[in-house]
Write a structure and sequence with these properties.
Elements lengths: L1 H29 L3 H29 L3 E5 L10 E5 L5 H10 L6 E3 L1 E2 L8 H7 L4 E2 L4 H6 L6 H10 L8 E5 L7 H6 L12 H11 L5 E8 L7 H6 L5 E10 L12 H33 L1
Parallel strand pairs: 1-8, 2-6, 2-7, 3-6, 4-5
Antiparallel strand pairs: 7-8
């Protein structure tokens, strides 16, 4: 009964906010005036903040959840951030938006260009000024070499609007949700994580690197609900959420051309793998401590 009721509440909240954002998208499409579009985007971001706040209220009302948030005290809504996070569950988006909504600008995601044409979803994300990217495959570029670099140049142009308003971009670096059976199948070198995919992170930095002030490295964990945190959240069984936040100045992030410099590519991959190894060590210690306290 709790699962059904909470699911309905989340669905209704999402549907109502989505309709509002889609209406804003229609206004932006019909009236392409820069000043009005900026105000409409701000209104759409406000609706996304409302969606996050209502979800946060639902989560806390139906769950005996304890929030354990470490770090991030220096974050501000006036900053430009690239957030990278491990990906444990569908619950991660709700948790990240809940934790970050009053700390930094409302999160945005780099989306595949094909999603622009998905009914309602594409329209809503466009209204929120989420950047759509078109990545060309190696096979395609081999047949059309003149297209090399065009995808990145197009994405850069779409991100120029972020120069004038504080922005947060979120990147789930593993590319998909972690499961222990999936980690074994993919031969992950980590105990609690999938291997990070450096290409997506490098692409985001290449498109907006000059605008970011910090990389915000977030580690998410659900110590009591490691197997099914999203289902447990909707069932009122989510007990503890751990959010570890580390803020890294861009000056401490390797800089270079990931796609054309082999030496830098290896350097960046090594840096990201090191970050992931630190996450894995942190999670192992967290789970060991939690296990010991339960004995």
């Amino acid at each position: 009964m709790v699962f059904i009721a909470s699911s309905l509440l989340v669905i209704v909240n999402t549907a109502v906010i989505s309709v509002g954002i889609c209406l804003i998208a229609i206004i932006k499409w019909l009236i392409p005036i820069a000043g009005l579009q900026q105000r409409m985007t701000a209104l759409a971001n406000g609706l996304m903040w409302l969606w996050s706040t209502v979800n946060h209220g639902i989560l806390n009302t139906i769950n005996p959840v304890q929030w354990h948030i470490e770090g991030g005290e220096q974050l501000t809504k006036q900053g430009w951030y690239l957030v990278m996070s491990n990906h444990q569950s569908w619950a991660d988006i709700v948790v990240l938006c809940s934790v970050l909504r009053n700390r930094i600008p409302m999160p945005k995601f780099f989306l595949k260009h094909e999603l622009l044409y998905v009914p309602f979803l594409g329209m809503g994300c466009w209204a929120l000024d989420m950047p759509f990217m078109r990545r060309y495959s190696k096979d395609y570029l081999a047949k059309h070499p003149q297209k090399k670099g065009q995808d990145l140049r197009t994405t850069r142009r779409s991100c120029e609007k972020f120069q004038h308003s504080a922005t947060t971009i979120v990147n789930f670096v593993e590319g998909t949700r972690h499961r222990y059976d999936k980690a074994q199948t993919r031969h992950s070198p980590y105990q609690h994580l999938l291997s990070p995919k450096a290409g997506g992170m490098a692409y985001t930095l290449a498109a907006m690197g000059e605008q970011f002030e910090y990389v915000v490295d977030i580690t998410l964990a659900y110590p009591d609900n490691r197997e099914t945190p999203f289902r447990d959240m909707l069932s009122g069984k989510l007990k503890k959420v751990v959010v570890n936040i580390e803020v890294i100045p861009m000056t401490d992030v390797p800089q270079g051309d990931y796609f054309n410099q082999a030496t830098f590519k290896r350097q960046f991959q090594a840096w990201l793998s090191g970050r992931w190894q630190s996450k894995d060590t942190y999670l192992e210690a967290l789970y060991q401590q939690h296990h010991s306290s339960d004995i």
